[in-house]
């Protein structure tokens, strides 16, 4: 029943992360270091100023863009990346006024997760996790903001380059995915590492999601892995059904796992039934939402990669509160290609 309304993003490069701010606004971050708000009703885009570093920085060409953004449980603060990709930025909501910049990491921040309304954790390619306390609403007049240090920094033992983080509320633990193929668990109360496990033959680990019951879903090159969070043992390998597809984003809503792929497809897996959602009309067919092409540059080279027709990768997707609308976004998978894709499904 979902129909896509494409969202035009001009010449922005690759949308990496997104969340609904309200029932009419979506906030998203891009590889070209833009933090944007899209108004669904007026179809307008607004740029939010990124927060400047205090120290001299190497310049825009050495940044990776904004890979992560997350709103705290009471929806009063937004944590994301700053202008320097190694720094954390916190804004107050709904005004999006700057609150502070967090300085600690030596390499790009690739994910963040809130533990509650004031504590937030960042994970970086420097293989470290940092725990921050958001200062109370800043008395400073915009565009000024505080610079803060973390409460604690932890090296991820056995881990190289943190790619994704999630907070498991039921078990009060933080799970981190590292690019050398491990999942690590930290106790959220003590901020100490309690468990690490090498994942079975996983290539290209990209995304991590938690179900309320405490199951982890990990997206990698050719399948999604479901893990029991108590033992970190594999419960199920969900093959992607499409060869060489690559899982780029994953999220749970109850027992439904939504998977965004590198082939421009959004798929739905029913954890309880143990199978992909099937069409009511064609019971043999899996329900997939196929993204529109978006924008890609240089266009003539786009179809040359792997000799297949170009489709955008879905790097991020998010449901609105009602679960009746999905914002999907991304762009080209090959690094040299510049482009973007965004759509609202309803």
UniProtKB/TrEMBL annotation:
Pathway: Protein modification; protein ubiquitination
One GO CC annotation: Cul4-RING E3 ubiquitin ligase complex
UniProt similarity note: Belongs to the WD repeat DCAF12 family.
Subcellular location: Cytoplasm; Nucleus
Main location group: cytoplasm
Occurrences of domain DDB1- and CUL4-associated factor 12 beta-propeller (ranges): 1-345
Lineage of the organism: Eukaryota, Metazoa, Ecdysozoa, Arthropoda, Hexapoda
Keyword annotations: Cytoplasm, Nucleus, Repeat, Ubl conjugation pathway, WD repeat
Gene3D superfamilies per record: YVTN repeat-like/Quinoprotein amine dehydrogenase
Protein name per its UniProtKB record: DDB1-and CUL4-associated factor 12
Superkingdom, taxonomy of origin: Eukaryota
Coiled-coil ranges per UniProt: none
Pfam families in the cross-refs: Beta-prop_DCAF12
């Amino acid at each position: 029943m979902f129909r896509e309304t494409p969202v035009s993003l001009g010449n922005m490069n690759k949308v990496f992360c997104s969340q609904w701010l309200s029932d009419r606004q979506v906030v998203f971050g891009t590889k070209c270091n833009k933090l944007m708000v899209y108004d669904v009703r007026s179809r307008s885009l607004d740029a939010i100023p990124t927060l400047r570093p205090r120290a001299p920085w190497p310049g825009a060409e050495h940044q990776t863009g904004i890979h992560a953004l997350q709103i705290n449980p009471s929806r009063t603060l937004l944590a994301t990346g700053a202008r320097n990709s190694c720094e954390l930025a916190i804004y107050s909501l709904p005004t999006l006024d700057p609150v502070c910049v967090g300085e600690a990491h030596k390499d790009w921040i690739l994910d963040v997760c809130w533990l509650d309304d004031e504590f937030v954790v960042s994970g970086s390619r420097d293989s470290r996790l940092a725990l921050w306390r958001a200062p109370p609403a800043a008395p400073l007049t915009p565009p000024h903001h505080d610079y803060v240090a973390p409460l604690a920094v932890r090296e991820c033992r056995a881990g190289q380059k943190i790619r994704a983080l999630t907070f498991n509320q039921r078990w009060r633990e933080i799970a981190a995915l590292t690019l050398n193929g491990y999942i690590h668990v930290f106790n959220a109360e003590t901020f100490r590492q309690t468990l690490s496990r090498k994942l079975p033959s996983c290539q290209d680990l990209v995304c991590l999601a938690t179900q309320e019951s405490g199951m982890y879903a990990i997206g990698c090159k050719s399948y999604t892995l479901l893990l029991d969070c108590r033992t970190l043992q594999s419960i199920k390998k969900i093959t992607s059904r499409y060869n060489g597809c690559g899982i780029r984003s994953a999220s749970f809503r109850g027992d439904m796992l939504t998977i965004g792929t590198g082939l421009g497809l959004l798929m739905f897996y029913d954890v309880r039934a143990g199978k992909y959602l099937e069409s009511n009309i064609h019971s043999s067919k899996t329900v997939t939402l196929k993204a529109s092409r978006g924008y890609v540059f240089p266009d003539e080279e786009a179809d040359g990669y792997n000799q297949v027709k170009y489709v955008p990768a879905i790097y991020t997707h998010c449901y609105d509160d009602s679960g009746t609308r999905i914002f999907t976004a991304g762009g080209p998978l090959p690094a040299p290609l510049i482009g973007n894709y965004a759509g609202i499904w309803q």
